[in-house]
């Protein structure tokens, strides 16, 4: 593992001599606006969410034991020429037997629009095509859009894991995920598991900014890398393109929350996700 001390996120995971990350694990709150976000996306942009920037105030080794090493970082996120919209204390707990637990303790500035999402985004190398997860699927599911899905174990290819809306937008996240595995076709990759609460999971060959800035589906050009999102949660989808504002029960309006997830380099057949 390597840590980018200028930014804080995990910058590299090497396993069996192979690099499993193509980018740092970077906190993010932006999602490509859906049709139902057509009104609130203006508030999101005005608050600076679209141009989110990360500032790392400190990043240092805080504790070492016989079995773990813990790195603590303090960060903020904000837009250009704007006060930070959130601060977070981040812990990276590395285990001698393998894997790391990534934990965020987040405080959100009051008086701002609902967060679109909160989690980490990163890319995995070309060929990271095999996807297996335990969550609400096999179709997309969000906090207010999951009655058509079911909780179970699903397996597919990342290239097939995408909803081709005419206008590109956020799609194919899975609420209530307990674990997920993204690997190459030789079954070597990264295993993600909840440590406290279930999380939202998504992966595709597109970044949120690609989906935001591309006007039509046929204009999308997939990346060779696989883009992975591990989220505490999303703002709900709602029906505000032509209906009422999103119900408060489904708004991501928390002013303080925690997010934690375990990440383990592994071969699929060597891990029993229900035991882990």
Strand order of the largest sheet: 6-7-8-9-18-15-14-11-12
Count of helical regions: 2
Please describe the biggest sheet, giving its number of strands, its sense, and whether it closes into a barrel: 9 strands, antiparallel
Instruction: Provide the low-confidence segments as ranges.
Output: none
In total, how many beta strands? 18
Strand content: 35-45%
Mean pLDDT: 93
What gyration radius follows from the Cα positions, in whole Å? 18 Å
Characterization of this structure:
By secondary structure, the chain is mostly beta strands. It has two helices and 18 strands. Helices cover 5% and strands 44% of the residues. The strands form four sheets. It has a nine-stranded antiparallel β-sheet with strand order 6-7-8-9-18-15-14-11-12, with no helix packed on it. A five-stranded antiparallel β-sheet has the order 5-10-17-16-13, with no helix packed on it. It has a two-stranded antiparallel ribbon with strand order 1-2. The longest helix has 8 residues, at 40-47. The model has no long low-confidence stretch (mean pLDDT 93).
Brief summary:
This protein is mainly β and 276 residues long. It has helices at 40-47, 208-213, and strands at 2-3, 10-12, 14-15, 18-19, 26-28, 53-64, 68-78, 86-95, 100-108, 117-124, 130-137, 150-157, 174-177, 179-183, 188-194, 199-204, 226-234, 256-267. It is built from two helices and 18 strands.
Write the layout of secondary structure elements.
Elements: E1 2-3, E2 10-12, E3 14-15, E4 18-19, E5 26-28, H1 40-47, E6 53-64, E7 68-78, E8 86-95, E9 100-108, E10 117-124, E11 130-137, E12 150-157, E13 174-177, E14 179-183, E15 188-194, E16 199-204, H2 208-213, E17 226-234, E18 256-267
Antiparallel strand pairs: 1-2, 3-4, 5-10, 6-7, 7-8, 8-9, 9-18, 10-17, 11-12, 11-14, 13-16, 14-15, 15-18, 16-17
């Amino acid at each position: 593992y390597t840590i980018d001390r200028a930014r804080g996120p995990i910058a590299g995971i090497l396993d069996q001599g192979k690099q499993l990350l193509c980018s740092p694990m970077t906190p993010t709150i932006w999602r490509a606006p859906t049709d139902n976000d057509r009104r609130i996306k203006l508030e999101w942009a005005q608050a600076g969410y679209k141009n989110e920037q990360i500032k790392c105030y400190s990043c240092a080794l805080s504790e070492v034991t016989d079995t773990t090493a813990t790195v603590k970082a303090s960060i903020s996120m904000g837009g250009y020429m704007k006060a930070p919209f959130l601060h977070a204390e981040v812990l990276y707990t590395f285990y001698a037997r393998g894997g790391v637990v990534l934990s965020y303790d987040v405080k959100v500035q009051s008086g701002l629009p609902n967060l679109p999402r909160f989690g980490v985004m990163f890319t995995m190398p070309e060929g990271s095509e095999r996807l297996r997860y335990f969550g609400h699927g096999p179709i997309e599911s969000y906090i207010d859009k999951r009655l058509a899905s079911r909780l179970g174990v699903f397996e597919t290819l990342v290239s097939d894991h995408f909803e081709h809306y005419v206008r590109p937008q956020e799609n194919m996240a899975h609420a209530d995920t307990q674990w997920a595995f993204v690997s190459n076709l030789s079954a070597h990759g990264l295993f993600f598991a909840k440590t406290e609460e279930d999380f939202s999971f998504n992966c595709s060959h597109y970044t949120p900014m690609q989906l935001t800035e591309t006007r039509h589906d046929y204009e999308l050009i997939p990346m060779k890398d696989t883009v992975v999102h591990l989220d505490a949660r999303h703002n709900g989808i709602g029906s505000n393109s032509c209906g009422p504002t999103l119900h408060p029960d489904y708004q991501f309006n928390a002013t303080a929350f925690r997010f934690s997830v375990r990440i383990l380099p592994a071969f699929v057949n060597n891990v029993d996700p229900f035991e882990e």
